[in-house]
Amino acid sequence: MNNEEALEYKCPACGANIKYNPKINKWKCEYCKSEFDLETLTNKNKTAQKNKKNQKEPTDNFKDYISYKCESCGAEIVADNETTATFCVYCGNTAILKSKLSNKFTPSKIIPFKTEKEAALEAFKNLSKGRPLMPKDFNSPSNIEKIRGIYIPFWLYDININGNIEVLGKQISHWSIGDTHYTKTSKYNVIRGGKMDFYNVPIDGSTRFDNDIMNTLEPFNYEEMKPYNHAYLSGFYAEKYDIEGESLFQEVSSRAISSAEKLLLEEIKNYDIKTLSKNSLTAKEIKKEYALLPVWMVNVKYKNKMYIFAMNGQTGEFIGDIPLDKTKTIIYSLVIFIISIFISILISYLIYINGG
């Protein structure tokens, strides 16, 4: 196990632990209520860091676990190899493991949190709206095991798509002459192509998070992306990537090609049926960046089973798998069945009394 020195951001006014507040886009001290912008806080902490001993040279050869000493209470805390920002379980202060974010693990960009913990809790409590088959007590706050704000590692790709698609287009016309009905189907081979650039195509760079959940949380607003700074991690958890960007290009390029294909199909108009017959689109990487994106993770335990929910920490999009109440489902299915039978009988009766 390696010994690690943790980086903590202190309030320049009173010395207490200070955290990033998404609501005001500043760092706010919970004790003296002082507020600081990024430039002021960074300059103050740089000065404070000069008075501390030099940290060990960062290395990429991390073992499975490291320990760090909490600067506030002196406790020794253990973190796993992928965690880059966590909390002291004794005093609650944020600990940023700076060497984990050095060299190739240093993100180039970050989207700071815009939503707070209370927003994730409120979204969970409102799950019952429009979901009549959900168990009545599932969204009770007492079922929540943990809510954590986590910066998830993502690779962002700029991708160029080039090539063509071939489509079989059909135009169908109908007409009648007397009692005879005619249908004419005209077939055309249609080609569309060109070059497209897609920017900031995201893909989760960690094996610790479900890809389906991460993909569903998109899109993020990349116009609000900022140059990375350790200070944004204060008050949140963070992870580093454990999947190299090069190994993910095939997957992310397939998504870009699918989007390009959809756009080209939309450009083919005036056909009743369009069937893709050939896709010769190719993808080329323009550049990729390593970024941290904000996500609220909500762990729920209901009837001895764990459920994972996630909320986009920027847009508020909330997703997750919701269980179905078996009794409600059976009753709902029976009601639908009975209504369907009633409607069928009513239609048959109306046809009968109108002479069939």
Mean pLDDT: 83
Question: Helix amount, in percent?
Answer: 10-25%
Structural class: alpha+beta
In terms of DSSP E residues, the strand content is 35-45%
Total of helices: 5
Summarize the biggest pleated sheet.
Answer: 11 strands, mixed
Strand tally, please?
A: 17
Low-confidence stretches: 53-64
Instruction: Compute the separation of the termini in Å.
Output: 85 Å
Radius of gyration, CA atoms, in whole angstroms: 28 Å
H-E order:
EEEEHEEEEEHEEHEEHEEEEH
User: Shape, please?
Assistant: flat
Number of domains: 3
Describe the protein.
The chain is of the alpha+beta class and 356 residues long. The protein folds into 3 domains: 2-106, no CATH class; 144-324, no CATH class; 325-356. 21% of the residues lie in helices and 38% in strands. It has helices spanning 38-49, 117-125, 211-216, 249-267, 326-353, and strands at residues 2-5, 18-21, 26-29, 35-36, 65-69, 76-80, 83-87, 94-96, 109-110, 144-177, 180-204, 226-227, 237-239, 273-279, 282-302, 305-312, 318-320. The strands form 3 sheets. Strands 7, 8, 9, 10, 11, 12, 13, 14, 15, 16 and 17 form an 11-stranded mixed beta sheet that branches. It has a 3-stranded mixed beta sheet with strand order 1-5-6, with no helix packed on it. Strand 5 (65-69) and strand 6 form a beta hairpin. The longest helix has 28 residues, at 326-353. The protein is flat. Mean pLDDT is 83; it is low at 53-64.
